Amino acid sequence: MYAYNLDGKIINKVLNLKRPNNVDIAYGFEWGNEKIDIAVVTERKANSIRVFRLPNLEPIDDGGIRVFEDEEGKGHNEPMGISLYTKATGSTNPVYALIGRKSGPSGSYLWQYELYTDENKVVKGKKVREFGEFSGKKEIEAIAVDNKSGYVYYSDKIAGIRKYYADPELKDNSQLAFFGQEDAKRDHEGIAIYRTGKDTGYILISDQQANQFLVYPLDGSSEDKHTHKLITSVLVSTNECDGAEATSVHLGEQFPNGMLVSMTNGKAFHFYDWRPIQNEINTSLKNKL
């Protein structure tokens, strides 16, 4: 696992993990009496997730947190996709890891764990939920949570994008949306969320074989917040993108409106200034008026 600066230079790394697959970060995690930022990565062949303190990538999990325990089907205990959900509750902000796997049953394909710190400041995980429909076509690897709205999205690769509540305390595992089923050339892959306001923004899905991103409204339609219709597609230089991330945070002169980061073949990442992407979205919306 590598940490880069905005110039693409490696600033930290963790080696010798057993086939790490996906990673996500959370801010303000309660670690003892401190609030810290963490990165959590799936370690597929160790059947675990690993937790590291940022920015130095210091391990704080005593070797890892086992996941999908007692699952016996082929690939059922191999974690792949991960996204972290930070719930705003006022006094505390619990962090949850939502994890997909190489294979598993429909209805309980994703497992959700609450992350917490024990008396020795070791990060542990407690399973709090199983959920998620699965088409059975290919594994579920790309997952993204929008903390502000409290929804989780994941790519059921060849089938489409599924949407659920992220909060396990709602005890509602019903599927809220299943969209994009006819929009991709084949695989729906990396998911990135870009916010433009309190209730607005975009969901970006990498259309893997077409080397483009599909753009959907984060807030749904005027009739139904769970109806996400394709706005446009944006061609990129990324080749066969598996994973992506986006932010609208001002990141200096080079990325004043944030950026999109996408993984390309050859173990590399591409950085995109958001402004030309927004211009393409604006042009598409204008043409539809």
Short description:
The chain has 289 residues and is mainly beta. The protein contains 1 helix and 22 strands.
Shape: globular
Distance between the termini: 45 Å
The profile of the biggest β sheet is: 5 strands, antiparallel
CATH fold field value of the largest domain: Neuraminidase
Return the average pLDDT rounded to an integer: 96
Q: Report the sheet-strand fraction.
A: over 45%
Any overview of this molecule?
- The protein has 289 residues and is mostly beta strands.
- It folds into two domains: 1-179, Neuraminidase (6 Propeller), CATH 2.120.10.30; 180-289, no CATH class.
- Helices cover 5% and strands 46% of the residues.
- The protein contains one helix and 22 strands.
- The termini are far apart.
- InterPro entries: 6-blade_b-propeller_TolB-like, B-propeller_Phytase.
Give a quick set of tags describing it.
single chain, 289 residues, mainly beta, Neuraminidase, 2 domains, 5-stranded antiparallel sheet, 4-stranded antiparallel sheet, 22 strands, globular, inositol hexakisphosphate 3-phosphatase activity, B-propeller_Phytase, BPP domain-containing protein, 6-blade_b-propeller_TolB-like
